[in-house]
Amino acid sequence: MSGIFNDVMGTLSELAGATGLSQQVHSYLSQLLTPDTLNTMLAQAEQAGLGDKVRSWVGDGHNLPISTDELRTLLNNQQVQAMVDK
């Protein structure tokens, strides 16, 4: 399961670095990524058509990457704003 964390953290770090919010994003993610919220995020990924990527993250094989645009389909404006507000 570490693949999902690496991919998501890498993409969010890239986005956060571009806006100077890297420290806040990392702090928020440590609070956000609990087992319950992770399960919800995985379900949202399936609904967004990213099921193959999700399954690659929880399987034993190669972890497929997630793009910035794909990540944006998983996080709505309120979720992003909540990160910024933290």
From TrEMBL:
Pfam family, one: YidB
Xref: Gene3D superfamilies: YidB-like (1.10.10.690)
The protein's name in its UniProt record: YidB family protein
